Amino acid sequence: MNKIFLDDVEIIPSKVVCIGRNYMDHIAELNNEIPEDMVFFIKPNSAISNRLNFPKNQNSCHYEAEISFLIEDDKITGVGFGLDLTLREVQSKLKEKGLPWERAKAFDGAAVFSKFVSFSGDVSKLGIELYINNELKQKGDYSLMINKPNEIIAEAKTFLSFEDGDILMSGTPKGVGAFKKGDIFIGKILYENKVLIEETFKVN
């Protein structure tokens, strides 16, 4: 089973619960419709990684940076930087046919995480930044989320259970795009506009 680290302690999540279309500008950049209800999908434990590997046998893959939360007792107890890797062309074909997204979202290594740190602060003061090759690509914060993290947890619990150690990915701001081997990613989680977490990934 794949693991993440919370304050240097190993945690094995059973799954990653993701919400799609949670930032207005991101919805617009992909020409998607604003959903009437929250859009959920799941990444399995097998998708979790602390390394950023370009997917095998693929010509293109997109990054999506997300504020990610560790859940224990149905509450947020930790925060980390996450990358929801997406095979966009595959996803588009699946959506056109009304089919599930697993091939595009749940492949091995599709959920890349920094270390997590314990968190009991005000989630409304959290933000995220992603730099690729020293260029700012994505920047967002709590205020831009359509659905707030605790609302997402409450809605998810209407149809699934969180196991202790599960992860919630809270959606991505605008600026998603393709990447390639050799790129250098720097992911930051901000709290009150100060860096809480900073992690560097090189695409292998």
From TrEMBL:
The keyword Chloroplast belongs to this UniProt entry's keyword annotation: no
Q: Which Pfam families match?
A: FAA_hydrolase (PF01557)
Q: Which InterPro entries match?
A: Fumarylacetoacetase-like_C, Fumarylacetoacetase_C_sf
Q: Which top-level group of life is the source organism from?
A: Bacteria
Q: Which GO terms describe its molecular function?
A: acetylpyruvate hydrolase activity; metal ion binding
List each copy of the Fumarylacetoacetase-like C-terminal domain by range.
15-184
Alphabetically ordered keywords of this record = Metal-binding
Put simply, this protein is called 2-keto-4-pentenoate hydratase
Q: Which organism is it from?
A: Arcobacter cloacae
